[in-house]
């Protein structure tokens, strides 16, 4: 099996809701394991997500979890999750769902390099870039 690179997102107690939201956006199979599933002590964390993984029919893998007990959740602006391709209808659908309830920093529109591109931050504070490229040929 080849090596793969997957985004792994950290959340402050709402990983279940976020990962279910991404499943609604992208479809696919979602597996969620709680701290309680792995015998982590502490009733207040038993239902928190220790590891979540979404695998989509498009070939995406997105992972996420609630911050472990005792670790501070400190979101930053040093990353974004990028989704790109030529299937305009599918990508516009992702954009509509991801930007709904969030904020748009760059509207999804044609850019100087010829692609349709937009940037938004979803309602969970995760920044996304969507790029619809022109078909080759």
TrEMBL record:
<protein>
    <submittedName>
        <fullName>VOC family protein</fullName>
    </submittedName>
</protein>
<dbReference type="InterPro" id="IPR029068">
    <property type="entry name" value="Glyas_Bleomycin-R_OHBP_Dase"/>
</dbReference>
<dbReference type="InterPro" id="IPR028973">
    <property type="entry name" value="PhnB-like"/>
</dbReference>
<dbReference type="InterPro" id="IPR004360">
    <property type="entry name" value="Glyas_Fos-R_dOase_dom"/>
</dbReference>
<feature type="domain" description="Glyoxalase/fosfomycin resistance/dioxygenase">
    <location>
        <begin position="6"/>
        <end position="130"/>
    </location>
</feature>
<dbReference type="Pfam" id="PF00903">
    <property type="entry name" value="Glyoxalase"/>
</dbReference>
